[in-house]
C-alpha cells in the first residue's frame, strides 16, 4: 500500500491509506435510516447513516456492521467489496487508496514498485478550487472513466482498467486480476452515494503540551522542545505518503531561513517501523530539524484525531495549538516554502494580537 500511495505525489489533495476505512467514528451520523431517492436508475441516499442506505444498484449498505463495506461521511460515497475482492485485500494482494475527501480506489500489488489500478470513484465537487487539475490527474490512472450520476453540487465518476495484456504477471497474479476484473460491474453497483458531510479537519483536537518521545537518533524529546520559541511548526508525515514527501525539501529549506524565535520539528507517524527509511528520506530532503517518533500515548491522545496527512500544526512555547492546521500541501511545488513562511508569520501576528485565528 505504501507504493500505491506514492504514485499520488503530484496531487495537491491530502492523502491517507486505508485497508478498511479511516477512523472517523466521532463524525459519523448514527441515525437509524436515510431517505433514498432514485435518479436515472441510480439510488442516492439523502445522508450518511448507520443503516437504511442503498447502493446505486439498490442493495443494502451498512458500513458499520459489514466489514466488506467502507464509507466516510465527508467523502459522500462508499463502496462494498465483493467477497472475492475482499479476500484479496485481506491477503494483502490488493490495497486501497484514499484522496480525502474525493476519491477511494483499489489496486493490485504486482511488485513493490508496480500496481495495477483496478477501479476508483471520484466525487467531482463543482465549486471546489483546483478540482479540474486534480480530477485530470486521477483520470490518467484509468483507461475507462464514466459518469455514475450527478447531483446539484457533485458529479460522481467511476474509473477502471480491464486490460492486462501489457503486464508481466505470474500465473497466480493473472488469475487474481482476471477474477477482480470480472467483478467490476458488481463492484460499481456496490457504490453507495450520499450527501457528503462538511467536516472542518483544520480544527485541531488536543495539543502537545505534555509528552515524552524519542527522536530519530534515540534521544528523549519532551514538550520542552517548544519552550524557547514563540511558534513551532509541527509537520506530521509518513514514509508512504507521496504528498508528504513532496514538500519535505522545501520545508528543509524553510528551516534554514526561519524568522527569529520560530522553529520546525516533524512527527513521522510510521517512524517506529520505518526508522532507517525515514532517516534516509530526511537526509535526502535536507531536513536537519528534529523528527520525533510518536509514542503510544501520543498516537492515542493526539494523532488518532488526524484523519489525513500531511497535517501541519503550529504551537506556542507551551505546546498549545495556535490557529488552524494546514491540511495537505499548502501550495504548488516551488511555492511551498513561502506558503509555510506566510502561515508562520500569521501565527506570530495572532500571538502578538492576543488571539488565535
What does this molecule look like?
- With 357 residues, the chain is α+β, with helices and mostly antiparallel strands.
- It has two domains: 2-193, no CATH class; 212-352, Glutaredoxin.
- Helix content is 24%, strand content 28%.
- Helix 6 packs across helix 9.
- The chain is globular, with a radius of gyration of 21 Å.
- Mean pLDDT is 86; it is low at 1-32.
Explain briefly what this protein structure is.
With 357 residues, this protein is α+β, with helices and mostly antiparallel strands. It has nine helices and 20 strands.
- Main sheet summary: 7 strands, mixed
Estimated helix fraction: 10-25%
> Domains counted in the coordinates: how many?
2
Judged by helices, strands and strand pairing, the structural class is: alpha+beta
Mean pLDDT: 86
**Distinct helical segment count:** 9
- Secondary-structure element pattern, one letter each: HEEEEEEEHEEEHEEHHEEEEHEHEHEEH
Number of strands: 20
Rg over alpha carbons = 21 Å
Question: What is the strand arrangement across the widest sheet?
Answer: 15-14-18-17-16-19-20
Shape: globular
Amino acid at each position: 500500500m505504501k507504493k500505491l500511495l506514492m504514485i499520488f505525489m503530484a496531487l495537491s489533495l491530502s492523502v491517507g491509506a486505508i485497508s478498511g476505512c479511516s477512523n472517523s467514528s466521532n463524525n459519523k451520523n448514527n441515525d437509524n435510516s436515510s431517505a433514498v431517492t432514485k435518479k436515472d436508475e441510480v439510488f442516492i441516499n439523502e445522508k450518511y447513516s448507520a443503516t437504511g442506505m442503498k447502493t446505486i444498484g439498490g442493495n443494502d449498505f451498512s458500513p458499520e456492521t459489514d466489514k466488506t463495506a467502507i464509507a466516510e461521511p465527508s467523502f459522500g460515497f462508499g463502496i462494498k467489496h465483493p467477497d472475492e475482492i475482499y479476500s484479496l485485500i485481506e491477503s494483502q494482494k490488493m490495497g486501497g487508496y484514499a484522496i480525502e475527501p474525493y476519491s477511494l480506489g483499489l489496486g493490485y500489488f504486482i511488485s513493490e514498485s508496480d500496481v495495477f489500478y483496478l477501479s476508483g470513484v471520484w466525487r467531482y465537487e463543482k465549486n471546489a478550487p483546483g478540482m479540474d487539475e486534480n480530477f485530470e490527474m486521477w483520470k490518467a490512472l484509468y483507461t475507462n472513466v464514466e459518469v455514475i450520476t450527478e447531483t446539484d453540487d457533485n458529479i460522481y465518476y467511476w474509473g477502471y482498467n480491464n486490460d492486462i495484456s501489457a503486464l508481466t504477471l505470474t500465473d497466480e497474479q493473472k488469475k487474481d486480476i482476471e477474477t477482480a476484473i470480472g467483478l467490476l460491474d458488481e463492484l460499481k453497483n456496490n457504490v453507495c452515494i450520499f450527501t457528503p458531510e462538511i467536516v472542518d479537519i483544520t480544527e485541531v483536537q488536543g495539543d502537545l503540551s505534555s509528552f515524552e518521545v524519542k527522536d530519530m537518533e534515540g534521544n528523549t524529546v519532551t514538550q520542552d522542545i517548544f519552550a524557547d520559541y514563540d511558534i513551532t511548526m509541527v509537520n506530521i508525515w509518513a514514509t508512504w505518503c507521496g504528498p508528504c514527501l513532496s514538500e519535505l525539501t522545501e520545508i528543509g529549506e524553510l528551516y534554514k531561513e526561519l524568522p527569529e524565535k520560530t522553529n520546525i520539528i516533524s512527527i513521522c507517524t510510521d517512524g517506529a517501523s520505518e526508522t532507517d527509511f525515514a532517516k534516509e528520506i530526511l537526509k535526502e530532503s535536507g531536513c536537519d530539524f528534529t523528527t520525533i517518533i510518536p509514542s503510544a500515548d501520543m498516537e492515542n491522545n493526539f494523532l488518532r484525531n488526524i484523519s489525513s496527512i500531511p497535517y501541519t500544526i503550529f504551537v506556542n512555547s507551551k505546546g498549545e495549538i495556535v490557529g488552524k492546521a494546514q491540511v495537505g500541501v499548502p501550495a504548488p511545488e516551488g511555492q511551498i516554502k513561502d506558503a509555510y513562511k506566510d502561515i508562520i508569520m500569521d501565527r506570530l501576528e495572532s500571538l502578538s494580537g492576543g488571539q488565535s485565528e
